[in-house]
Amino acid sequence: MLVLLAFIIVFHITSAALLFVATIDNAWWVGEEYFADIWRVCVNNTNCTEITDSFKGYSTVQAVQATMILATILCCVAFLIFVLQLFRLKQGERFVLTSIIQLMACLCVMIAASIYTDRREDFHQHNSNVYLLTSEGKYGYSFILAWVAFAFTFVSGLMYLILRKRK
């Protein structure tokens, strides 16, 4: 049982780390001379512009930012609740609250990555057409990490739902 518990803890911490990297790092969309994320657009690695309300689709970018931050916070809260429930629940009770919070984090990541996938063209097209990044480039590793974090948080949420506290 101790090995299973260690695996669950490591899996959850890995999920949280993936969420942190996907939210913070600047590689959601990359090209030869630029990279972009949900916070800024950088050309030649020196000319970085914060995504502000002057960008087309700024409200959509804010939705992605908010849901990624919320997913990260929920994942961390779920871990803290898991640790508390580990010592407070009676034997045989389920970690339902931890599971629900982790599945909500999973839902937030899915929403953020789905919005980004659907509306990517709007994110990186400045109104003054300085950055027309829609036709060239590819999804970066942070975007891929967001989808991997979705899978990890989903599996983690299911593990907590199934897990029973044993000796």
Automatic annotation (TrEMBL):
Supply the alphabetized keyword list.
Cell membrane, Cytoplasm, Golgi apparatus, Membrane, Nucleus, Signal, Transmembrane, Transmembrane helix
The signal peptide, as residue positions, is 1-16
Classify the protein's membrane topology as the record does: Multi-pass membrane protein
Location relative to the cell: Apical cell membrane; Cytoplasm, Perinuclear region; Golgi apparatus membrane; Membrane raft
Q: Which domain of life is it from?
A: Eukaryota
**Membrane-traversing stretches:** 63-83, 95-116, 139-163
Principal cellular location given in the protein's record:
membrane
The record's section on Gene3D superfamilies has: 1.20.140.150
How this chain assembles, per its entry, is: Interacts with PTK2; regulates PTK2 activation and localization. Interacts with ITGB3; regulates the levels of the heterodimer ITGA5-ITGB3 integrin surface expression. Interacts with P2RX7 (via C-terminus). Interacts with ITGB1; the interaction may be direct or indirect and ITGB1 has a heterodimer form.
Entry function: Functions as a key regulator of cell membrane composition by regulating proteins surface expression. Also, plays a role in regulation of processes including cell migration, cell proliferation, cell contraction and cell adhesion.
Matching PANTHER family, A to Z?
EPITHELIAL MEMBRANE PROTEIN 2, EPITHELIAL MEMBRANE PROTEIN-RELATED
What family, per the record? Belongs to the PMP-22/EMP/MP20 family.
Q: What name has this protein been given in UniProt?
A: Epithelial membrane protein 2
Gene name per UniProt: LOC101408931
